[in-house]
Amino acid sequence: MTFILTNDDGIDAPGLQALRNAVGDNSVIVAPQKQYSGCSHQLTRGAAIAIQRRSDTAYAINGTPADCTRVAATHLCPQGTWVLSGINAGGNLGADLYVSGTVAAVREAALLRLPGIAFSHYIHRRRPINWERATQLTVQVLDRLLGLPQKPGCFWNVNLPHLGDDDPPPNLVFCSCCTQPLPTEFEVIDQQFRYTGEYGDRTHDPNSDVAVCFGGNVAISQVCLW
């Protein structure tokens, strides 16, 4: 297998290095030069996409995560067999699927007929992420998912829980994506509308990816485009 690695936090993000550590040397990084968090499935149209070679196996792209998947799959790494995106600093659960650049990278892979996995790490109350532990959990997920048959037009969305030092090892739980919206609480000051809801307090469906991840387990959801 040859893995194409990308993200939406930028090529220098610690989560991308954690993903690289989980995969090993049989991978090529093709990631944005800067952060594109929340860019969804935006593509660069009508302008050139600059490519900066960082090493023999790493390229910084002046484009979005979906751009990175396209450039990698068609030009820089056409031999790639999987697209892995992340590890995003923050959850991508339920409704987040529609705004996440991390997820868009593997959605684009599915459209290009390549299997993909999006990895994200829920952040509880702004506590720092233990990236070494995130790498270990990612290895466990890869061991489980890479051996499963892949449905055309589908990809995996994985969310790692935010664990404390004394928390037990999490289970890998296959679950559906939550159907509830992101928090809608808001305030209006001087005719300016601002959301005030807390991500960790969001309403969620029982047994959904939000419930699983918030409950301290790894949430694994299969998303199909057709």
The stretches of 5 or more residues where confidence is low (pLDDT under 50) are none
Q: How is the main sheet built?
A: 9 strands, mixed
The strand count comes to: 11
> What is the average per-residue confidence, as pLDDT, rounded to a whole number?
96
Question: So how many helices?
Answer: 5
Q: How is the largest sheet built, in terms of strand order? A: 3-4-2-1-5-6-7-11-8
**Which sequence of SSEs, written as H and E, runs from N to C?**
EHEEEHEHEHEEEEHE
Please estimate the helix content: 10-25%
Structural class label: alpha/beta
What percentage of the residues does DSSP assign to strands (E)?
A: 25-35%
User: Distance between the terminal alpha carbons, to the nearest Å?
Assistant: 25 Å
Q: Radius of gyration from the CA trace? A: 17 Å
What sort of overall outline do the alpha carbons produce when their principal axes are compared? globular
Provide a concise account of the structure shown.
By secondary structure, the protein is an alpha/beta fold.
Note down, in words, how this protein is organized.
The chain has helices spanning 14-23, 65-76, 101-111, 131-145, 209-214, and strands at 3-6, 27-32, 51-55, 58-61, 82-89, 116-121, 154-160, 172-174, 186-189, 192-195, 218-224. The chain has 226 residues and is α/β, with parallel strands linked by helices. A nine-stranded mixed sheet has the order 3-4-2-1-5-6-7-11-8, sandwiched between helices. The longest helix has 15 residues, at 131-145. The model has no long low-confidence stretch (mean pLDDT 96).
